Amino acid sequence: MKLYNIIKSVYTFIEKTQYLIRLIRLIIIQYREVFMNVYPNIFSNNPLDRVSYLRSNPDWIKETVAKDDTVFTPFWRGKPFVSTISGLVSGNSSPDQQSPAWFPLSFFEEKIISSSMVIFLGLLNKKAYFSIDISKISDPENEAGLKDLGIFEDLMVLSSQAIDPGELAILGQAKAIFEWHNSHKFCSRCGSESLLSEAGYKRICGTCSSEHFPRTDPVVIMLATYNDGAFLGRQKRFPPGMYSALAGFIEHGESIEEAVARELNEEAGISTKEVSYHSSQPWAFPFSLMIGCIAEANSENFELDEIEIDEGRWFSRSELKKAIEGNNSNFFVPPSMAIAHHLIKNFVNGQ
Fold it and tell me: In the chain, what are the domains?
């Protein structure tokens, strides 16, 4: 009897602990901006719980796909399908704003499903969200029955509109995963074709069984500052008059701080004294993570490489304040959809 009571007590403790963990997890998801201090960069603040501990279970995925309330949003050649029809969209955006359209799996014919890539996105209030890439069909509006229900829109175009930020982040997640799969169809070890696994979060080689996982390319984007000025540059591909923060990929064996210092030195000949982190931004073009930093320079000295940076100079805080407010006719900075905008705004506000 004593052993029974001990076992019962242990079981009760474990059960209560698991309940407490679930409760804490729900609180964190509900108030993630308070706990995580997430900066409001677009493509950030994804509301979905990706439940990595569940999506690796094929039986769970199979059961979840079959549920009546599970929904799928279509992609076609890199573009998400958006709509304003109330029965298809969440209603989180204004009625006239194109938003992700969500369909039950039964909407799509079996021949389309079997030829398409389906990935799991996550759960929200116990409801499952998936995405389906129907790029293999040539006329999705007619072949998939989407005509007059909405349009396939470029994600970059949507990012500058009044779309719900959470849903924009979901679309960014889906696009980045699809982009990775489309560019990593073959095993990097033996060259054989690999197969999608774990609902989109792994590929397994059919020949050598090597496992490959979706890659995120880290990019540093930094605003160099010195006293009351900040350095901005422009590339030839930029619209006339636009200047932005400098950026570059992090290389192997390199810290964020080292990458910031190297890129500033290579592109503009700026010597860095200190680097501080600002915020980050998922960037699904194709699958990067922008890591925003402020870099305090040792001096105002600079020398452009004239390869990546065509023009560049130091701008005063007052000049940048006018640019952020849209009141400078001589030059302009990236819009609020870009992390560079928030780095500059951060400097203007003296933060």
Answer: 52-183 (3.90.79), 185-214 (2.20.70), 217-348 (3.90.79.10)
